[in-house]
Amino acid sequence: MIYLDNSATTKPYKEVLNTFIQVNESFYANPASIHEAGVESNTLLDRARAQMAKILGTDDRQVLFTAGGTESNNFAIFGIAKANTHKGKHIITTEIEHASVLESIRVLQADGYEIDYLSVDSNGVISLQELQEKLRKDTVLVSIMHVNNEMGAIQPIEEAAKIIHESSRATFHVDAVQSFGKMPIYFKDDAGPDIISISGHKIHGLKGSGVIAFRKKMNIAPLLLGGGQEYGLRSGTVAVPQAVALAKAARMAVEDLEQSMKKYRKWHNELMEFLTSFGSVIHILSTPNGAAHILSFSVKDLKGEILINALQKRGIIVSTSSACSSKQKKTSHVVLALKTPPNFVNGVIRLSFGGLTTDEDIQQFKKAFTEVMKELKGE
Amino acid sequence: MIWKEILIRYGELSTKGRNKKDFISRLRTNIRNTFNDIAPLNIHSERDRMHIEIETEEQYEVLMDRMPTIFGIQSFSPVAYCEKDLESMKNLSLLIMEQFKEQQITFKVEVRRSDKTFPLESHEIQREIGGHVLRSNPNISVQVRKPDVELRIEIRKDAVYMMAQVIPGAGGMPVGSNGKSLLMLSGGIDSPVAGYLVMKRGVRIEAIHFFSPPYTSDHSLQKVKDLANELTKFGANIRLHVIPFTEIQTLIRDRVPSNTLMTTTRRLMMRIADKVREEIGALGIVTGESLGQVASQTLESLTAINDVTNTPILRPLIAFDKLEIIQIAEQIGTYETSIRPYEDCCTIFTPANPKTKPKVDKIKYYESFTEFDELIERAVKNREVYRFPEKNESKDKFADLL
Predict the structure, then answer these.
(1) What is the spatial distance between Cα A357 and Cα A365, in angstroms, rounded to a whole number?
(2) Which of A182, A167, A174, A241 is nearest to A212 (CA)?
(3) Is B50 annotated among the ligand-binding residues?
(4) How many domains does chain A have?
(5) What is the 3-state secondary structure (H, E, C) of chain A?
(6) Are residues A58 and A28 located together in one domain of the fold?
(7) Residues A290/A153, Cβ–Cβ less than 8 Å
(8) What is the pLDDT of residues B286-318, one digit of tens each?
(9) Nearest alpha carbon to residue B379 among B243, B237, B178, B180
(10) Is the pLDDT at B349 greater than 90, yes or no?
């Protein structure tokens, strides 16, 4: 099987699984317990936290472990909105956010928050000028994803941060689920985001593990209430094995970052060229400036599902643009926001690379895709 | 990487005539200790400054990271070298100034030309380099009186040295240059701050902690160990003496009236601390007491507690407000550890109405019915000693997992 759906999820690395098993076997005590075993798992948890904090460039205390990207995004949005009503009830986000951001914001909208959605150009990138114009005195939160999950557009996070911090009191949340471990993203004093969401399973870690990290101490309300774990901000017994496994996956990803970025970029360029050679029957949604590990395109008048099945028959796994929404039969909001030509809106498929993807996989894909095109389109 | 060495300017010790040599060698040793986990450093010390060679980028990062917490350093600067020709100097000046390229800054060039054979005069170098930097970066302007950045150039016999940042050090005196004291470390907010303040004045410390299992938990002991470990970043190794205190503490509870229990407990702690102090050759005892903060910290209580020894008791926080103490604790990074919510030896068996004005005679009378000496001997003898910073071995059991 050639797995090219790493933005949906990745296969956990052996090393990460070993960590997960070992921690479950040897350090399973509740880190909040006061017996020796508890102290020990707590020490291990602290180490994992410190490792994540170092990678992200913040203090240990500003890293909380969650159950994944969706929770981190929900937490950032509800938490900041609820704790800062005195600053206002205006939120800015983009048209192409992940559903976990958009749906949270919709709930707030129903609660009386005013929402502005930044539009994107045909490359999937927001306009900084529009951001500047929409910022208001009572803007309490700006939530912008770093890399779009469906087509890989990279948003100008640093420039956006500068504008937000200079001209408003808003907290700047960045959904880095698709970028962390694949591109550099970290806190940089005032020049960066205030909150970053991370998911473990996108970087060869485990499903059900994530991080929300803050640049500094934040005024944020908890989403999960109970025993006051994670400094009172995220109750529930901390899943130490998941946390440690995530810290390990993150370390491995960051250590390989330069290497893998080079690799992905090479494949990205190669495949862009390959797809362009088919001419006007293929529309590429991704751009050469987008994230190197995601490549989305569409075949004219062809349902994505058919393409996926045809490739699958040849042992190649790709997905429609987003795994989360691919079972729903409606056209993706990202595809619409990009103003994709009508003949192409239903056929978007996404290739996404990961740490286990090889050169051979890419060649196999090219071969299979050529066959599929012949079969389906007679090209 | 352009940085080749770190230049260190001494703190107060520059003014201390005779002891200067000792102070410098003390600082040197402390620096070596602080960085003994990276490759051995090449340190050259001079009368009023010290140079540390940098070999790798990693070394540079570690040095810059830890240098600000070492006492006895007034300020430090990363330094770059280049060949003694104008072209190389121009190139290097741009590389150095590049770190400020995103900011709107004013600057000036300061030249020291100790090699008088260099063909250009100081003011000519100033003009050449200054002009070159200005041309290359539109955000920079010249300001001679109070520049944001001073690009310092020194023309020496062997090379040209350049630096642009002067980073403030921790000040104070090198730890160990003012003898050794024993710190009573409870695990609360105050005692680590007290330790920090005396360390800043050059005192080497060892710490003593009273451990009363099962009344206090492993968590609370771990907290104290973490605090001791955190204090080591100020440039010294610390030994922590953990005294088994349960037996004595329960005996006190059973033998003295409950409202004087606190005073007697403190007196016994002090007696034990004094014994340990003697054994380790320390001169004083340091506590985090602050006047009036709690019942045991009134002048009357302090008198009653002090009564058991003639050893100087250093109380650097005596006149500090709680908020001021918290501020320092946050600054030095011990606050978060201190507020972990575990029982410590001071909060168990606390009576509802402790005496705030105990009388020494009465306390002595109550204590006279119990023989504590032998228990004290035993507690001192059975103490466990931990060394900080922790050697990596004990932590390594997690290394594979992460």
Answers:
(1) 11
(2) A174
(3) no
(4) 2
(5) CEECECCCCCCCCHHHHHHHHHHHHHCCCCCCCCCHHHHHHHHHHHHHHHHHHHHHCCCHHHEEEECCHHHHHHHHHHHHHHHCCCCCCEEEEECCCCHHHHHHHHHHHHCCCEEEEECECCCCCECHHHHHHHCCCCEEEEEEECECCCCCCECCHHHHHHHHHHHCCCEEEEECCCCECCECCCCECECCCCEEEEECHHHCCCCCCEEEEECCCCCCCCCCCCCCCCCCCCCCCCCHHHHHHHHHHHHHHHHCHHHHHHHHHHHHHHHHHHHHCCHHHEEECCCCCCCCCEEEEEECCCCHHHHHHHHHHCCEECEECCCCCCCCCCCCHHHHHCCCCHHHCCCEEEEECCCCCCHHHHHHHHHHHHHHHHHHHCC
(6) yes
(7) yes
(8) 999 999 888 778 999 999 999 999 999 999 999
(9) B243
(10) no
Domain boundaries, position B198? 180-397
Please indicate, yes or no, whether residues B100 and B219 belong to a single structural domain of this protein: no
Out of A190-199, A265-274, A323-332, B13-22, pick the least confident.
A323-332
- Chain B residue whose CA is closest to A20: B401
Query: CA B306 to CA B273: how far, in whole Å?
Result: 12
Half-sphere exposure (Cβ direction) of A128: Cα atoms closer than 13 Å = 11
- CB-based contact A23 B401, cutoff 8 Å: yes
- Are B206 and B347 in a shared domain? yes
Under a CB-based contact definition with an 8 Å cutoff, are residues B60 and B38 in contact? no
Give the CA distances from residue A32 to residues A36, A40, A224, B224, B338, in Å, rounded to whole numbers and listed in that order: 11, 10, 17, 17, 16
* Average predicted confidence (pLDDT) for chain B: 89
Mean pLDDT computed over every residue of chain A:
93
Q: Is B169 annotated as a binding residue?
A: no
What are residue B110's DSSP bridge partners?
B152
Q: Is the pLDDT assigned to residue B20 strictly greater than 90?
A: no
User: Tokens 């939120």 identify what position?
Assistant: A91
Chain B hits for A61, CB-CB cut-off 8 Å, are: 336
Does A47 contact B342 at a Cβ distance shorter than 8 Å?
no
Contact A348, A300 (CB under 8 A): no
Domain CATH for B354:
3.40.50.620
Tell me whether residues B218 and A39 touch, CB distance under 8 A: yes
Q: What is the CATH number of the domain that holds B78?
A: 3.30.2130.30
Confidence of residue B393 (pLDDT cuts 50, 70, 90): low
Q: Is B288 among the annotated ligand-binding positions? A: yes
Q: Is A240 exposed, middle or buried (0-12, 13-18, 19+ CB in 10 A)?
A: buried
Nearest residue in chain B measured CA to CA from A35: B218
Nearest CA in chain B to A27: B398
pTM: 0.69
- Answer whether B219 sits within 8 Å of A42, measured CB to CB: yes
Q: Are residue B120 and residue B216 in the same domain, yes or no?
A: no
Residue B245 lies in a domain: yes
Shared domain check, A317 and A291: yes
* ipTM for the complex shown: 0.77
Boundary residue ending a domain (A255, A284, A300): A255
Residues A147 and A104 in one domain: yes
B219 touches chain A (CB under 8 A): yes
